[in-house]
Amino acid sequence: MTRAQVIAMQDRIGTTPDGFWGPKSIAACQRHLRDLMPKDANWPSQSQPALQGFYGSPGDESKLVNLPVVGIRVEYDGKPVKTILCHELVADSLERVLQAIAASPQRDILKEFAGVYNNRPMRGGSLPSLHARGAAIDLAPDTNRLSQSWPVSATMPLEVMDHFAREGWLAAGAFWGRDAMHFQATR
What we know:
Distance between the termini: 27 Å
Strand order of the largest sheet: 5-6-8-7
Number of strands: 8
Radius of gyration: 16 Å
Number of domains: 2
Order of helices and strands: HHHEEEEHEEHEHE
Structural class: alpha+beta
Helix content: 25-40%
Largest sheet: 4 strands, antiparallel
């Protein structure tokens, strides 16, 4: 991200536009996204007991539904995606987010869909990933990898994070500083 882009984002999130992305900018960005989140969002916390109580067991495919995305122009590896397998409790919310992104200038990010349901542990750990519950989505992995710092080298647009935040979803890039491809339905 260029200094001018950092300044523009700092101005947008309400912090001093000095071109340096540090603790003040990170806090302002997180505050900006939290302010967009609905006060009545009922997503669980990120603790395993809360996730188990809300979503059920990881890998329980009986709680998954096929979310139709024809017309939203989601693509995987250059091919149109017809449905996305996700948890039944996130389906309506995820559809609203994808429709909002599809209607935005950032719509091309949907051509870089990388998946929702994947029964696996978190990268580098043994606890189940939110993907194992169908409650997380990855977009644009080639430019937003786990090892890339957001927004310094990862390129996920803040506007995409805004769309997810309006549904109460956490954007990993803004809240963890890395893994900007990842969004999850937790608080």
